[in-house]
Amino acid sequence: MLEIYSAGGILMYPILLCSIAVVAISFERFWTLNPQKIAPRHQLGEVWNWLQKNQLDAEKLKQLRQSSKLGRILAAGLSNSRHGRDVMKDSIQEAANQVIHDMERYLGALGTIAAIAPLLGLLGTVIGMINVFTALNLEGTGNAGALAGGISEALITTAAGLCVAIPAMIAHRFFVRRVDTLVVTMEQEAVKLVDALHNDRRVDVKVA
Questions:
Q1: 129-164 residue pLDDT tens
Q2: Is the sign of the CA dihedral 131, 133, 134, 140 positive or negative?
Q3: CB 103 within 8 A of CB 113
Q4: 32: which of 79, 110, 126, 198 is 20 to 30 A away, CA to CA?
Q5: Which of 180, 22, 184, 42 shows the shortest CA–CA distance to 103?
Q6: pTM for the model
């Protein structure tokens, strides 16, 4: 592996850095974007139970805000629930925007790596072919080692770039989809809370 890495030329270093970044970001996002940590299934039911028992106070709101991303959104809405439906929805939207921004952290970097890794491989291919034609110009076709080295460099960097880009693209699509799913779930829970508090329609809130 070390020989192959060395044969790839100088562009193998940024490709290697990209591969490390992909692995690190993927593990971090997989841990952070755990659905049970972001939007616990029965959190809305717990909040509704507090409301029915008149147990919702500043301490409960603080606990709710710190418990999860969904809790942060619900707490923002509850803090402004007495000011009317529209104000409550605006507060929820502002909190949701911040939460979504946090959930999308590093996904842009992952998408960028997926885009530039093949380009780095292509650049390595171009450099390798330049070396091939330079060797042909200086030494003719008699130096097979120089020709093989240039062609090897071209192929290795291309393969390495693709080996980084493909997992990066898969991870990026996976986490974008997970964020979208979580956003929809949190939106549904927030709408249930607004409707339940303002009695616009009957809402089924699962307590357990």
A1: 887 777 667 665 555 555 666 677 778 888 899 999
A2: positive
A3: no
A4: 79
A5: 180
A6: 0.81
Do the beta carbons of residue 114 and residue 162 sit within 8 Å? no
Summarised one tens digit per residue, pLDDT across range 164-207 is 999 999 999 999 999 999 999 999 999 888 888 876 444 444 44
For the record, the structure tokens of 108 come out as 């842009």
pLDDT at 83: 80
**Cα gap 134→140, rounded to integer Å:** 9
What lies within 8 Å, CB to CB, of 13 at 6+ separation is none
Of 197, 203, 181, 200, nearest to 70 by C-alpha is 181
How many of the other CB atoms lie within 10 Å of CB of 117?
25
Asked if 174 and 110 count as a contact pair (C-beta separation under 8 A), the reply is: no
Distance of alpha carbon 196 from the chain centroid: 32
Q: Could you identify the residue written with the tokens 């240039």?
A: 150
Concatenated DSSP letters of 8-73: T-TTHHHHHHHHHHHHHHHHHHHHHT-HHHHS-TTHHHHHHHHHHTT---HHHHHHHHHH-HHHHH
**How far apart are alpha carbons 96 and 85 in whole angstroms?**
16
Residue from 35, 77, 50 nearest 185 by CA: 35
**In angstroms, what is the C-alpha Rg of the chain?**
27
